[in-house]
Amino acid sequence: MPGETTAPRFPYASLDGVPPDVREAILEVQDKAGFVPNVYLMLARRPAEFRAFFAYHDAVMGDRDGSTLTKADREMVVTSISAANRCTYCVVAHGALLRIYAKQPLLADQVATNHLTADITARQRAMLDFAHRVNARSHEVDDADFAALAEHGFDAEDAWDIAAVTALFGLSNRVASVTGLMPNAEFYLMGRVPRDRT
Amino acid sequence: MPGETTAPRFPYASLDGVPPDVREAILEVQDKAGFVPNVYLMLARRPAEFRAFFAYHDAVMGDRDGSTLTKADREMVVTSISAANRCTYCVVAHGALLRIYAKQPLLADQVATNHLTADITARQRAMLDFAHRVNARSHEVDDADFAALAEHGFDAEDAWDIAAVTALFGLSNRVASVTGLMPNAEFYLMGRVPRDRT
Amino acid sequence: MPGETTAPRFPYASLDGVPPDVREAILEVQDKAGFVPNVYLMLARRPAEFRAFFAYHDAVMGDRDGSTLTKADREMVVTSISAANRCTYCVVAHGALLRIYAKQPLLADQVATNHLTADITARQRAMLDFAHRVNARSHEVDDADFAALAEHGFDAEDAWDIAAVTALFGLSNRVASVTGLMPNAEFYLMGRVPRDRT
Amino acid sequence: MPGETTAPRFPYASLDGVPPDVREAILEVQDKAGFVPNVYLMLARRPAEFRAFFAYHDAVMGDRDGSTLTKADREMVVTSISAANRCTYCVVAHGALLRIYAKQPLLADQVATNHLTADITARQRAMLDFAHRVNARSHEVDDADFAALAEHGFDAEDAWDIAAVTALFGLSNRVASVTGLMPNAEFYLMGRVPRDRT
Amino acid sequence: MPGETTAPRFPYASLDGVPPDVREAILEVQDKAGFVPNVYLMLARRPAEFRAFFAYHDAVMGDRDGSTLTKADREMVVTSISAANRCTYCVVAHGALLRIYAKQPLLADQVATNHLTADITARQRAMLDFAHRVNARSHEVDDADFAALAEHGFDAEDAWDIAAVTALFGLSNRVASVTGLMPNAEFYLMGRVPRDRT
Amino acid sequence: MPGETTAPRFPYASLDGVPPDVREAILEVQDKAGFVPNVYLMLARRPAEFRAFFAYHDAVMGDRDGSTLTKADREMVVTSISAANRCTYCVVAHGALLRIYAKQPLLADQVATNHLTADITARQRAMLDFAHRVNARSHEVDDADFAALAEHGFDAEDAWDIAAVTALFGLSNRVASVTGLMPNAEFYLMGRVPRDRT
Hints:
Shape of chain A: globular
Oligomer: homohexamer
Low-confidence stretches of chain A: none
Number of strands of chain A: 0
Order of helices and strands of chain A: HHHHHHHHH
Structural class of chain A: mainly alpha
Radius of gyration of chain A: 17 Å
Number of helices of chain A: 9
Distance between the termini of chain A: 17 Å
């Protein structure tokens, strides 16, 4: 519920005013999640950017043949990178997805605060180390980074995936912060308690 | 429950092996909270440091005659500073206390990620701005910082309080990180859902 | 000509192997520029990302009704941000476009090295200051940043544009750096000398 | 003599106004040192913090059974960390103690400026490297840091000691800087010249 | 031509007003280059500094018996360091010299943007890595840095040379930036196109 | 006495092996100071650099007609900048000169640790603020910096002086650190005690 937090800098789009395909996408996520994540209503103000963003999102967050990255892995990258970029919307929203996909209610808070001490596997640690290199010092990425990933079974295409997820959410973090987007109240508790108790 | 996360670098003290006053303090917190926060069992390995830390804690986290800082304010400082220092134990444990004292289930996640966009008052924003100055660049603190606090009704003694809380938890963050302390599982959910539902 | 520089970390797509719409887009740019910018051949390895990237590109780099940003302005943002992120491909390629759109052969080198001393207008300086805030410290962007833009006639939608261009090329910088993309030799000299002499 | 330097931001406590145990402690240090270090008169404004600070101080700066850290080692950590945190009071006061305990009149200035080039042993270098990790990047401390210490005979309890000294003086640096504390004139020359000449 | 860019903060010296040896030096470079680089006219305001600077320049940029550094190597160091220090004058002027000495028209733009991905030899990469250490973190330079150079045939005297070039242009970058010096228009295109075409 | 500290990375020049003018300069400083500062014996290994460095030194550290900078002011800049660059040789040697010229035995330690809290005048504070801008972020120096100096009576030529001193000792700091130069033992105590007592 946007009203619970500081209003964003830009007014949300109204469903009546957006092109049919955008409205369709919004109604679909509402059906699935039970609410409309604020980022949909913000990006819908600019339909071309809405379409491009979600097309990019689907391209890098969905499954890829041969990929060794799970949905939880991808959301873990998003949560960790978004925390480094200090984007509250993305940390809270994708932290929720991470808890759900990983089925680990404690994981997101750990990853968001300090991935170096989080209860994750050595493979996930390598994945996040690479993501943080790409996020903070992409100009220094070199063969040693690819070799460190390879030690954990990530091939070059997996490296591309991790980099692309990192880069896309670096974009998303910046847009969310500049537009003053805050997370829907629903996200905060998702994945923390057994379904039947919420 | 320590067992749920990576074991710390130092074994916890056993209740049988600690001096009576330390055991007393531990049993008291267990009575009150229903579990023993891991920091108690870690510091109890060194009784003199245990006593000094909690004496300092009580001196700066408790009420002071004339203070304008609420318990929620103090826990907000701890949560925000601990996030800057990336100490998972302190962010999760004191984030829980912040939610409880402030009776705001969404507040801790916002403050931990980016206090600049959190749903807090202008007065709290000034308090946290000062705390971050003290945490990150104490050598630059000057009269302008005190003046900025004064605009929101914080006098010099309040400034001391904010600085002392910041400094003590800077210490706590470092000790927790070096000892590999992770938060008890209980903390993660505290203050997020109505009492009768947990 | 890729062969003139270090080979990228990923092999370029071959025109024969890409979907028709991707091939179409590549042939079109070749027609227009006389060569295929390497980023096209790299992204074409992943058609869905190719399409999403260029859709985003067209959405934020093209004209917008009511926008006060010229094509040169947008390329100036890209050049300056890409230099901050130290992405050689983007600095050289978009520096070329900046020279061409601005019809100022000296501008790109100045903007890439230090926008604070470049021969630009106060309005462009404000635009680049905002872009660098978004690029480096988006979590600190606040109303004062929007007010600083407004002093130079940039409204909130212009601010969104600048932020979106910055964010998209932050993505592009990271992908180019991770894939080891280097600029085509053609870019280096474009816009530096009168047409009839090259 | 406080009067010789800029006055602190808070007035010193007067001996008449402090609780007996605090006065006792102050008179004792005066007896021993010949003057009252300013930090005593500043902290005495808040007796509970005074007691907690010096209890912590005695717990981590005094001897510990089995510790391999000498008094000079501990003061070297304090001097080096305080210089990193740019706290003039602590650098000058503890630099004096370092010169005295180490019986090396040149050591403190070297350690304060750059511990990497100071005339210290490889063991002391490892100790200071660890202290600076804890001071500046405690969230990154990991097993490799403990292993580096172990190569020089420091066990895990020694590591705790170094971390605790670092953390306590990180607190002290912040309190001293915020209160505007400057060193007593006496400290500057202590340990620089043979006793009979001062 | 100074007039093409923002005027510097200090007026250029006039040839009539400078001592004969300074005028001589200026006329000599004009003869050789076809124009007077702005740095000559700026430093000539202070003849003693003019003489000392160019004496230092000749001492470290010229040949040294036994040196393995070519003129192109030295200009590569200057270009790369000046870009790190964001000095437009030095990047553009010495980038021109680098292109000419190395006979590689694309090299300077690559080195200025990111030396880690530039098309240079492993030996040049080691040289630039050392230069950047000296430029940004000289207090951390240690034996490992000299050993890394030695692996590529650089002896200790070569290390001195690289450090001296780096240090001198660190000085030059600061003086140029403070005086508001901008590059002559002639520099931008030098070495980019075959002689007979410019 | 070099022998008291870690040996430098390069052997000192022997007086027999240096050109007559260099030997002359060394004997002169020995006459005046009673010892040969190590930097003379190190730079003498390279006579052309020795001459250029001291020519630059004399040009910017000596008096200038119309300058408002005292010798103590200049040494204060050197001490403060050298501490920021963490060059032990320069901090200790020029800290000694600062104490002597300013006739203030406590000043150098304060300026070296944190110029923001040192017992200096507002005019000296402005001078050091400018010097640190030039040292750390010369690319950001702008008219506001000159205006801040002007408020304290520093004209543009004084600004040049401060910048030149800063830039020259930035060079000196780097050369001293790379060559492993450590201060002569004599410097540490100079200016700390009345003449007749040392």
